[in-house]
Amino acid sequence: MPMSSYEVVYRAVHFATPDRLPVSMGSLGVDDLMGWVAPAFPSERGRTGLGADEWGCVWSKTEMANMGQVTGHPLADWARFDDYPFPDADDPAAYAHVEDVLAGVGDTYVITGHFMLLFERMHALRGFQNTLEDLYLEPKLSAALADRLVDNAVRRIQRMGEIAHGRVHGFSFSDDWGTQQACFISRERWQEFFKPRYRAIFDACHAQGWDVWMHSCGYVNEIIEDLIEIGCNVMNLQQPRALGIEAIGRRYAGRIAFSSLCDIQSTLPFKSDADIREEARLLLAHWATDQGGFILSDYGDGEAIGVPLEKKRVMFDAFMAYDRWKKAS
To answer: Given CA atoms 120, 121, 127, 130 in this order, what sign does their dihedral have?
Structure first.
């Protein structure tokens, strides 16, 4: 009997040998994951992606199609910190929809999460340059802000856990950490400031029985080691060529699962169908193991970066052709 979507994903994450490659490709109508089941706070930022989000961070867009970026930072001036209204993680209204959503889940792997968890939320609130400078010029204020964000995230996790009663299986979040060549800050500073704070959030997730899924763009090769140590279960990496497919495989395959796809910058928009097929083969060969460790995942802004559905279908078909678990089952 074929495994359910839940079991396929769970086994891939935990290296327990799924009977096929798990897939999360909503654009192609194929998805073993159910998400995003998360708290919903009042926000101006709706379908257009413009306006203030629940944190008061104001989003803008250029003429280029994309998700936009924060251009209004409510804590650009530290003088506002003491009176800043953090979203109320215990507000029952933010969770009013959750039970109805979970009631119709079925036998699939359910994701909750937190967009812009820690570092990204810090620089959305303060501004990117300010945030990097704060780590050295205003360490106490920077720590105070980070600790408030950690507390807010942990309380959201606990409230969701109380409602879900075992019907949520993973916690997904975004924190982009790299340029094309390196992490934004030194690994030593990352370990000192951010590692223990991520650990507190990951521990709260694991206390609920949830796996931790982290999305991070850029060259984050070094901090993956630290993330494994503090309990990250899945890394969502969408630039495998920038990271080095073989290099990442040598260091981390079998130690953490990967949610990924062919490179969204260098391969999918520009390379031939043959190149896409070869990269799919390389990713499964180097980032997965015979016991699992890989989830084929979508990229939501495909059309915006020049990736038509036809390219995604070529990629999907290639991954299906190289699915070692299906062939072995």
So the answer is: negative
3-state secondary structure at position 261: coil
8 A C-beta contact, residue 159 and residue 39? yes
Q: Which of 2, 40, 38 is nearest to 19 (CA)?
A: 2
Q: CA separation (Å) from 74 to 30, 78, 121, 153?
A: 39, 9, 11, 19
pLDDT single digits (tens) 207-256: 999 999 999 999 999 999 999 999 999 999 999 999 999 999 999 999 99
Give the C-alpha separation, 289 to 325, whole Å: 10
Number of domains in the chain: 1
Q: Residue 20 in contact with residue 1, Cβ under 8 Å?
A: no
Please state, in angstroms and rounded to a whole number, the distance separating the CA atoms of residues 212 and 127. Answer: 27
Q: How far apart are CA 263 and CA 279, in angstroms?
A: 8
Residue 313: which domain range? 5-328
DSSP state of 270: T
Question: Domain of 256: which CATH number?
Answer: 3.20.20.210
Q: Specify whether the CB–CB gap between 223 and 198 falls below 8 A.
A: no
Q: Per residue in 109-162, pLDDT tens?
A: 999 999 999 999 999 999 999 999 999 999 999 999 999 999 999 999 999 999
Amino acid found at 7:
E
